[in-house]
Design a protein that fits this description.
The chain has helices at about 20-35, 45-55, 85-95; strands spanning about 15-20, 35-40, 60, 75-80, 100, 115-120, 120-125. Strand 2 (about 35-40), helix 2 and strand 3 (about 60) form a beta-alpha-beta unit. It has one domain: 3-Layer(aba) Sandwich (Rossmann fold). It is built from three helices and seven strands. Its EC number is 1.3.1.76.
């Protein structure tokens, strides 16, 4: 079934990011640009993400994911390097009817991020039918 492309207004809305590596480092700035209230859960993060936390741009909970972390989020991004954790995060979000993106397996998540680019004030997104 073909995907449905959608724009999200995230200003002031909580977005949970589980994982603190390179994928999180790529995705968090775009979430901040959209005005999201980013909450990051990860025992360790990149220096860039730590800097964002130190400057109050994101909230970082320095610990592993635990059930209940999705509560209150509008969008969840599971971006760890552990497929089991990513699966648990997406399962919790899905049960709570929260959109979730699973970075390691788009086929196993209800949503995924498109390839995107900007030209002036236009944003262009591209989704393919398979795993991006």
């Amino acid at each position: 079934m073909p995907p449905y492309l959608l724009g999200l207004r995230l200003a002031g809305r909580r977005v949970l990011v589980v994982g603190g590596g390179r994928v999180a480092q790529r995705r968090v700035p775009a979430l901040l640009d959209a005005g999201a209230d980013v909450v990051l859960v990860s025992p360790a993060v990149t220096a860039t993400l730590e800097g964002l936390a130190d400057h109050g741009r994101i909230t970082w909970h320095q610990r592993p994911y635990k059930r209940g972390d999705c509560r209150g989020a509008w969008l969840v991004q599971a971006v760890t390097d552990d497929p089991g954790v990513n699966g648990d995060v997406v399962a919790e979000a899905d049960a709570a009817r929260i959109w979730a993106v699973r970075a390691d397996d788009a086929e196993a998540s209800p949503a995924w991020t498109p390839a995107s680019g900007h030209a002036g004030d236009a944003t262009v997104g591209v989704l393919l039918g398979g795993d991006p």
